[in-house]
Amino acid sequence: MSAGSFETIRVSTTEAASVPGTETVAHVYRGTGKRSHLGIVILPIQGAEYEVSTLFAEHFVKHGFSVLRFERRAEWLVASRAPESLATLVEAYSADVQEGIRRWREMAPEVTRMGLFGVSMGAIIGTVVAAKVPGFEALVLVMGGGPLAEILVTARDEEINEFRRDLAARLEVPEAALEELYHRVLQDWEPLSFASQVQVERQRILVVASLLDRVVRYPLQRRLWESLGRPPRMRLPCGHYWAVLFLPLIKRLSVRWFMRWLAA
Questions:
Q1: How many CA atoms does the CB half-sphere of 176 hold within 13 Å?
Q2: What is the bridge-based pairing of β-strands 66-70 and 24-29?
Q3: 126-166: pLDDT as tens digits
Q4: Residue 86: its pLDDT value, please?
C-alpha cells in the first residue's frame, strides 16, 4: 500500500438530533517495515479541506508508521446552530474518535503503541481525546490553546469573524457577550479543563507554539501548555497561517518525537 492509500471506516456513537452531523469518517493507513506497529492518530484543523492532516499522514506513513486520520463529524462553527451544540459536538466527536480507535486496533492488531498528532483545532480537541482515551504514549500538539470560548471571541480570521458576527446578530447580543455564553455552554467540555487529565507523561508531550498568532493567540497557547504541566515546547516566530513556512521543521520534529517515545 502506497503512502496515499487508505481504508475508510465510519463511526457514529450517537444519533441524537441535538448532535450536529451523522457520523465521523476516519482513514486507515497501513505502515510498513519495522515501524508498522507504531500508530499515530491525526485530528484535523477547524475548517477547510484536509490537506494539512493528509500531508502529515502521508509523511508519517513514508517513515513506516501506521496512521488513523480522522475527518470532522460536522463543521465546528455554524452560526445558525444553537451555541449549546458546540459542547454536544465536542462530546460526540470525542466518543466517535474513541470508538474509531477501538475499531482501528481491531483492524490493525499489529499496532501496539500509539501517539496523537493535531494542529490548531486538532490540538485543542486532541487534548480532550488524550484525556478520555487510554493508551497514548506520545503527543505532538501544534498551535492549540484555550479556553476555547476566548479563542472564538479573540481570533482574527475571516471565517471565525463571519461566524461571530452572524451568531451575535442572530442572538441579538454584542459579539463580546459570546465569550461568557460559550464559557457557560462549554463548562463541562472546555478542552483546557481536560489538559490536567491527559494520560501521557509530561516529557512525552511536544507543544509547538506560534508567537505571532492572531487566530489562537500566543497567551492562549501558553495557557494550554501550562495546563499540560509545561511539557517540552518549541516556539516559532510566525502567525497561524505563516506556520506553513515551518512545515518541513514540524514534520521532521514530529517524526523524531514519535520515534523517540514510541520506538523506545
A1: 0
A2: antiparallel
A3: 999 999 998 999 999 999 999 999 999 999 999 999 999 99
A4: 93
Q: How many alpha carbons fall within 13 Å on the CB side of residue 169?
A: 8
Q: State pLDDT tens for residues 90-120.
A: 999 999 999 999 999 999 999 999 999 999 9
**pLDDT tens profile 193-210:** 999 999 899 999 999 999
Beta bridge partners of 243: none
Residue of 264, 229, 228 lying closest to 115 (CA atoms): 264
User: Which residue type sits at 231?
Assistant: P
β partners of residue 39: 66, 114
Domains of the chain: 7-262 (3.40.50.1820)
Q: Assign 3-class secondary structure to the chain.
A: CCCCCCEEEEECCCCCCCCCCCCEEEEEECCCHHHCCEEEEEECCCCCCCHHHHHHHHHHHHCCCEEEEECCCCCCCCCCCCCHHHHHHHHHHHHHHHHHHHHHHHHCCCCCEEEEEEECHHHHHHHHHHHHCCCEEEEEEECCCCCHHHHHHHCCCHHHHHHHHHHHHHHCCCCCHHHHHHHHHCCCCCHHHHHHHCCCCHHHEEEEEECCCCCCCHHHHHHHHHHCCCCCEEEECCCCHHHHHHHHHHHHHHHHHHHHHHCC
What global pTM score does this model have? 0.95
Cell 493567540 belongs to residue:
217
Q: Copy the grid coordinates of residue 14.
A: 450517537
Give the model confidence (pLDDT) of 57-94 as tens digits. Answer: 999 999 999 999 999 999 999 999 999 999 999 999 99
Of 113, 131, 123, give the one whose Cα is nearest residue 263: 113
| Of 252, 262, 208, residue with least CA distance to 60 | 252
